[in-house]
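User: Cullin family profile domain-containing protein. Structure?
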Amino acid sequence: MSMGSGRRPKPKIRPPPKLGPDTSIKEIWNKLSHAIREIQNHNASKLSFEEHYRYAYNMVLYKHGDQLYNGVKGIVSEHLDKLAEERIVPAFPRTSATQASAPGGGAAAVERAVEGDRFLRAVKGVWDDHTGSMRKLKDILKYMDKAYTQQQGLPAVYDAGLQLFLSHIVRSSTHPIHNHLIGTLLGQVQLERDGLTIQRSTVADCVDFLIRLENPERLGGRPVYATDFEPEFLRRSSQFYRQEAVAQLVKADSSAYLRNVERRLSEESDRTAHYLWSNTSQPLQMLLVDELLTPHLQAIMRMPGTGLVAMLDGDRIDDLRRLYTLFLRVPGDAGKDAMRLALRGSVEVRGKSINDSALAAAAPPPEDEEEKPDVKGKGKAKAPNAGATALAQALRWVQDVLDLKDKFDAILDKAFGGDKQVQASINEAFQSFINANQRSPEFLSLFIDEHLKKGTKVKSEEEIDHALEKTLILFRYLSDKDKFERYYKNHLARRLLSGRSASDDAERGMVAKLKIEMGFQFVQKLEGMFNDMRLSADSAKSFLTYQARHGAAPLDMSVKVLTASYWPQQIVTASTCTFGEPLAAGAQLYQRYYDSRHSGRRLTWQASLGTADVRVRFKARPHDLNVPTQALVVLLLFEEAKEGDVLSYSEIKSATDLADSDLQRTLQSLACGKFRVLTKTPKSRDVGPNDTFAFNDGFTSPLARIKIMQIASKVETPKEREETQEMVDEERKHQVEACIVRIMKSRKTMGHNGLVTEVAQQLSTRFQPSTGLIKKRIEGLIDREYLERTSDIGVYRYLA
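Assistant: Predicted structure:
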């Protein structure tokens, strides 16, 4: 007795017994055909699987596979025709296929939905009945599929059943099932688009078997869904949304239109996800964009009261975000490009409005920023505080531009997701309108000046730094940065020399920021001005020690020594002024002190830049006056004057040697301002060469200390602007020539076009030189033999 492993031996599958002598093929087929009909009648439980499998096996084995295969197809076809007649045809919708997708609401729409659902359920019921029968037949005829259909190159029995369902049901030649099926499916979709609720599961079931049914090979083997349903579905969808776009545009509500587009995109995406083929999603979404967006980009943005401008005006972030998101869907960046162009145009229009508003009020006469002559008499007085108004308008321009920048920065971040291309368009618009205002460098410098100088409103370090950071953003847009440098130097000089800087740290911090932006060369002179102020402070301490050793000065004085090459030209340019005593004695003492410490240096006294504190006795009471140094020179002429003594304009000019412009401003501040310590005859606003002046002994004021400012404007007059532009143009000539020489020295030889391009590129950080300017400077250098033309046309050579 042998021992095994404990496993039972695997039973052998015995082949079905062969046909007996009394069994004929006809009998076998009769039994099989009866079994097939029983299966189709849902009586498969009464049948023996092994018995009928053996019948099919023997028919194939004895070369009757073709009879079996074709016989099965015939029975299936017969059954499908019966099902179509009994279950599908009676369920045909009363609404024709061409009307199934017609728009309409109310009871009629509900009736169409119910009829359509009943019909689709009938077709789906036949599909389920047929596929259930075919699965059972597939098991019984498994040997035929293995031994006959493969060898003959025929579809397996189940696949043949699907083809029969396609030909006898979906594309029946006897009944118009196909038209009703496709039309009803399209109608159900349309009813849902019109707002009616449909049975999605029924539609999904029918779509599913259309996807599973494949066309014959001659049609490429594609799903029936892709050839019979999808093209018509997309065509009708296109027609529907084209008409809807026209109807929505008539309402002229851009926000509502975009919300509808967004809703439709979401609905169609949901529709393909739940009961259409997923492959339909992309062409359907593209269709929506093509019909609802692409042809109407401009119309959407230009709708009056609701378009892009209105969205921007009202900071409607949700609408702007929706517009941006939807326009991104338009192929080829056409949507975003159109939006960017419109956005840039809107910014430029707003910027132009700011420019027009500022320039309309920025034509001031020379006025004092803190006081205005208040003359009573027959003279024609100008509008009060015209200089202050011009300054306020300049500051308003910068603040309006900053507010606009803040607005669009917020929109860019919240609505456009910080899109770099959109940001570039906004920046281009700001650069365009800022540089369209020729006075933007001056205005920007005045704005910085207002924040860095001492004033009535005390600002914290954080407020100052925040303001400077924001103005630096506008500075980057300037193309004429060299012009800004000139204005900034003038304003910085005034703050430093008058001691009106709110914070030394803030002053140096701003220069450091400009240095980061523009490099060392841009701020070299500004840093030199700070250095002069530091050296002057050290020198003041040393001067006190000198006075102690050599005798006290006739008056308490503080002197600032400025290096001519660092400071603005109008400040260091000598102005004539004859100092009277004791000013002359003090100046001589300081001159001796300075000469003792420096050799080979020459001091030039600038009376126009200083101030003086002087006590003046009037009849009522004495007052301490803070006046410009030139005003003190004039007042000292009246020190010994008696009541009734007058000095003519020519006598004062002769005694002080002041230029007419300086003398007129000085006399206006003393005799025509709010505090008139001198009287003028005749009484008028302007000072003329025939006027006479007397000491106003009867002057009185409740203030013990009075500040009398020189009549001057912080905002340039048209004449001053012309002079500034001339100086800028002259300086640019030198910069262009220096750049040309620098480039040619490095390259030795260079073509004309390349040289012009290189010069323009290198100087673009300071200003934009014109091609004509560069050409003229090249000619000038050739004339002065820095360059020469070569034998090659348009090529220059550097001459060492």
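Residues 106-140 form the longest helix (35 residues). The radius of gyration is 49 Å.
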